[in-house]
Amino acid sequence: MSKQIRLGILTPSSNTALEPLTFQIVSSIPNVSVHFSRFPVTGISLSAKGLAQFDQSVIMQAAQLLAHAEVDMIGWSGTAAGWMGFESDEKLCEAITKATGIPATTSVLALNKALDIFKVKKLGLVTPYLDDVQERIVKNYNAIGIEVTSETERHLRVAKNTDVVLIGEDVLEKLVGQVVEGGAEAVSTFCTNLIAAHKVELWEAKYGVPVLDTVTTVTWDMLRQCGVDTKAIKGWGRIFHEV
Predict the structure, then answer these.
(1) Closest C-alpha among 213, 145, 112 to residue 238
(2) Which residues partner with 198 through β-bridges?
(3) Does residue 68 have a pLDDT over 80?
(4) I need a labelling partner for 20 at 20 to 30 A (CA). Which of 9, 14, 185, 189 fits?
(5) 150-200 tens-digit pLDDT
(6) 3-class secondary-structure state, position 133
(7) Cα–Cα distance for residue pair 213/172, rounded to 1 Å
(8) Could you tell me if 88 and 59 are in contact, meaning their C-beta atoms sit under 8 angstroms apart?
(9) Buried b / exposed e across 84-101, counting CB within 10 Å, b at 16+?
């Protein structure tokens, strides 16, 4: 009998997309279960209130609750490091492991690993975010040598998280196509409250580049670090088969 693997996912309180999508992604692996812990997040902005939602001490409380379930891995299914700096996720993972003894990863750190493996130098970035949030994300990627230009980014200027989940698949598909046309070597649908992960394989076939959704990236990295053969996961993108 295979060892039961428990994945613990840190979840923004207003997010209604990532839980069902994550369950669907792992559903073909019988010995993997997924467990969630929420902390308060209602909107995305660079205001003091918006940034304070992602204070490490707040997230750590939710991580400690996952540790009560003796999960094998903790993953932060969120993209705040995109505008707060990648080092914020690195420090969070270090703090989680120090406090709980459980290894940790995040959507953004996992995305960056996948970009490195796919040797992506020009990224298409599709997000729901406000102008200044998007500018910060673009700046942070450019700083690590991954080019994002006006031709390879699109954003929808949405701040309220419960409005993000209402963005339609047709809108997202159009934006993915535009950034590929702009020269992107891979595309990230960069927000875990976008209902996009289930469309990745279709978009990859249509546009011919890897599409890395941030609900998918953290799940992939957690499974990989737990020693799970991700090739059993069908229909959720190249990341599970080629990486």
Answers:
(1) 213
(2) none
(3) yes
(4) 185
(5) 999 999 999 999 999 999 999 999 999 999 999 999 999 999 999 999 999
(6) helix
(7) 12
(8) no
(9) bbbebbeebbebbeeebe
Q: Single out the residue of 104, 89, 144, 94 nearest to residue 121, CA to CA.
A: 144
pLDDT in tens, 23-52: 999 999 999 999 999 999 999 999 999 999
DSSP state, 185?
S
Q: pTM of the entire structure?
A: 0.97
Amino acid in position 130: L
With 50 as the cut, is the pLDDT of residue 1 above it? Answer: no
> Cα–Cα distance between 91 and 136 in angstroms, integer?
19
Q: Tokens 């690195």 identify what position?
A: 90
Give me the torsion for CA of 80, 199, 155, 136, rounded to 10°. Answer: 30
Given a contact cutoff of 8 angstroms between Cβ atoms, the answer to whether 204 and 210 are in contact is yes
Closest to 15 in 3D by CA, of 77, 66, 58, 60: 77
In this structure, the strands spanning 5-12 and 186-189 are unpaired
Burial per residue of 43-72, b for 16 or more beta-carbon CB atoms within 10 angstroms, e otherwise = bbbeeeebeebbeeeebbebbebbbeeebb
Strands ordered across the beta sheet of 5-12: 32-39, 5-12, 73-76, 104-106
112's CB contacts (< 8 A; 6+ apart) are: 86, 144
The two tokens of residue 125 are 């970035």
Closest CA to 16 of 65, 80, 77: 77
